[in-house]
Design goal:
6-stranded parallel β-sheet, 5 helices, 6 strands, Rossmann fold, alpha/beta
Length: about 140
């Protein structure tokens, strides 16, 4: 199975390495060719360019991909690229990282699979505080 990863920073490169270790054929796309260094001894594909560029997406194998992960550093770019991959290339499993919780929720309602690390952090931190053993405030009369 083929996956395309758009954005090869800490998140994208880690996802790429995990999928490759599970037997996926993975191609990463990043504007910075130095991002290839994050992949270590990489045996997958790597295309230098912008994830909105049709020629770049086709060089990465978007037309044959079963899955795509979009994890650049920009919400707007991620959402547009995610929709391109879903609509133009017919990739059913497109997962997009969106940092803004409101946007993530809005696009999820439109059918785009979104992951919002900001919302995950908010929920995890809130639950951690609730789990602390702290004195319960006393009502004053």
């Amino acid at each position: 199975m083929h996956a395309v990863i758009i954005g090869c920073g800490r998140v994208g490169s880690s996802v790429a390495k995990q999928l490759a270790a599970e037997g996926w054929d993975v191609t990463c796309v990043d504007e910075d060719e130095n991002a290839l260094a994050r992949l270590g001894a990489w045996k997958g594909g790597f295309v230098v360019g912008h994830g909105m560029d049709k020629d770049i997406l086709e060089a990465a194998g978007a037309g044959e991909a079963e899955a795509a992960v979009v994890a650049t550093d920009g919400d707007n770019s991620n959402l547009v690229i995610g929709q391109i991959l879903q609509r133009r290339y017919g990739i059913n499993c497109v997962v997009v990282r969106v940092l803004d919780p409101a946007r993530a929720e809005f696009y999820a309602r439109l059918g785009l699979r979104t992951v919002c690390p900001t919302q995950t952090a908010i929920s995890t931190l809130t639950e951690a505080v609730r789990a602390c053993e702290v004195p319960v405030p006393q009502a004053t009369s």
